[in-house]
Design brief:
By secondary structure, this protein is α+β, with helices and mostly antiparallel strands. Helix content is 19%, strand content 38%. The chain has one domain.
Length: 52
């Protein structure tokens, strides 16, 4: 899961996405302060490939 945190006009908005491509597309459209994070749950740890 990917979470986009967007700070605008004194408020914080959160968007959730199932894949990186959707999240990155929205991230690129927004201006201002934004953070794109990948959420990895402990139970799903074995399913996530290790990046090197």
């Amino acid at each position: 899961m990917w979470v986009l945190t967007y700070y605008v006009k004194g408020s914080i908005q959160l968007f959730e996405f199932d894949n990186r491509d959707e999240a990155k597309a929205k991230y690129d459209k927004l201006e201002g302060s934004r953070i794109l994070s990948e959420v990895i749950y402990y139970n799903d740890f074995e399913k996530v490939p290790v990046l090197s």
